[in-house]
Amino acid sequence: MPKVGMPKIRKPQLVQATMTVIDRVGLHSASISLISKEAGVSTGIINHYFGGKHGLLEETMREILRQLSVTITARLRELPADAHLQRINAIIDGNFVGYQAESKVAKTWLAFWSYSVHDPELKRLQRVNEKRLLSHLKIELKALFNKDQAELIAHGIAALIDGIWLRGTLNPEGIDASKAELIINDYLDKQLTFYSQQ
């Protein structure tokens, strides 16, 4: 967590520099020296405000999560409360377009995803993100399915989002948001048909 008093211009500058360096050399080779050089600051600034590389990595992950939350919340605000299918699509879309689809952001996500397996704080942040996604989905799905069905389908959609996102990030052509939406909507349509016949 950055210390109080960190100049507002410095924090985004360092987060952007961190993602740029991770994009270029990978997480393990993203040294304080390379990041500070990219940001045009001294290594002492990073150590002073973030306590070193790990603190800066945590702040970078938090910023990516904040941006995701802001994007999805803004999209949901634009839609009527009863437009459940549109709202589900807004949640899906928020994971695949804009800031989240930028190459350096996607590569940083991927690096953190693997790194969080062995890092308690990054793992906690990943769990917060997962719970937020499931919560958004379940709110909308409970209007279309019973509680148990909504829970199961929310996990299915979340798994599809993660899987499609991972494949897209590893693909040189990047993430295809429209294809992701088609695949997930196909799954959702099948669930709606299946449960309506019960």
Automatic annotation (TrEMBL):
The keyword Transcription applies. Transmembrane segments: none annotated. Residues 31-50 bind DNA. Pfam families: TetR_C_6 (PF13977), TetR_N (PF00440). Keywords: DNA-binding, Repressor, Transcription, Transcription regulation. It comes from the Bacteria. Pathway: Amine and polyamine biosynthesis; betaine biosynthesis via choline pathway [regulation]. Residues 8-68 form the HTH tetR-type domain. Repressor involved in choline regulation of the bet genes. Repressor involved in the biosynthesis of the osmoprotectant glycine betaine. It represses transcription of the choline transporter BetT and the genes of BetAB involved in the synthesis of glycine betaine. This is HTH-type transcriptional regulator BetI. The gene is betI.
